[in-house]
Design brief:
54% helix; GMP Synthetase, Chain A, domain 3; three-stranded mixed sheet; alpha+beta
Amino acid sequence: MDQASRILAKWAGSSEAGTELVSHERLALGAWKKAVGKRLADRARAIKLVRDRLVVGVDDEVWQKNLWGLRYQILNNLEAAIGPGIVKSVEFRILPPKIEPQRAEVALTADEADQIKDPGLRRIYRNARRKETKSA
């Protein structure tokens, strides 16, 4: 319980009812990594606290089933980290990891037919493409 008070003091939550819920959510989300460990926290991300249920996003159904079997141990670890009564259940939802921004690849060749290695097939492809553009 001592650690929970330090976390609350760090975030300086006010005594209003609305901010109390927010501070409980911050407590639960902040304690997730400690409760499950770094390696598991990379695969299962605590998303939000709904009333007394912690919603956790997992990569796939296998992780969902395995973590469901460990839910009581996870709840005990959360209770030890943040105190009793804040998180009473855990829900595991399948949320694939977000795709990071990617740089668009610039075409190095002016013609896509140049990627065809066989010269005969390349010629056939170009002729078919020319016929298609003339008829359109």
